[in-house]
TrEMBL record:
Transmembrane intervals: 12-42, 62-83, 95-123, 143-161
Designated name of the protein: Metal-dependent hydrolase
Membrane listed as a keyword: yes
Lineage of source species: Archaea, Methanobacteriati, Methanobacteriota, Stenosarchaea group, Halobacteria
Origin species: Halobaculum saliterrae
This protein's record includes keyword Magnesium: no
Keyword set, alphabetical order: Hydrolase, Membrane, Transmembrane, Transmembrane helix
GO molecular function terms noted in the UniProt entry: hydrolase activity
């Protein structure tokens, strides 16, 4: 999947989460989560630029998602003693950090699993899963997912704001 399609899938994933965060009274977290997921939307494709790393190999796995989650959890554990804020879902800041990093990578993998090349979720175990819905370079799918994502996010924000106003 190309960048536009990945951003679309990321926004589709984010829409219900954004709605929940806004209606639960965490607007700052909603912005933080959306910003992080969209910023990291293309992170696994760093493998295009890394020597000796095959495309859709290690960086397209749940293991990599766990590593990114661990980095975020580590950062959160440094911040937690200094800055204690109420975290959505009542989880610790460390758990929240892990989920944010983990989820950002998984959102990318969801965009790639619909293409015939698929995703090796359990790398290094050699098995690829694919829904084979569309080739990665499909203009229709990349634009379609992007537009759907924008609508889903706009809808989530509009509904949450409307709900808050009633
Ligand atoms: Zn990818």
């Amino acid at each position: 999947m190309y960048k536009r399609g990945h951003l679309g899938v990321a926004m589709l994933t984010l829409a219900p989460i954004t709605f929940w965060l806004l209606t639960d009274g965490y607007p700052a977290f909603a912005v933080l989560v959306a910003g992080t997921v969209l910023y990291l939307a293309m992170l696994p494709d760093v493998d295009h630029r890394l020597p000796l790393v095959s495309h859709r190999g290690p960086t397209h796995s749940l293991l990599f998602a766990g590593v990114v989650g661990a980095v975020f959890a580590g950062a959160a554990s440094l911040v937690e003693p200094v800055l204690s804020i109420a975290v959505p879902g009542g989880v610790s800041m460390v758990a929240f950090g892990f989920l944010l990093g983990f989820g950002s990578v998984v959102a990318h993998l969801l965009g790639d699993v619909i293409t015939p090349m698929g995703v090796n979720f359990l790398w290094p175990y050699p098995r690829t899963w694919s829904l084979s819905l569309t080739p990665a370079d499909s203009t229709l799918w990349n634009w379609g997912l992007f537009v759907l994502g924008v609508f889903a996010m706009a809808g989530a924000v509009a509904l949450a704001v409307q709900g808050a106003a009633i």
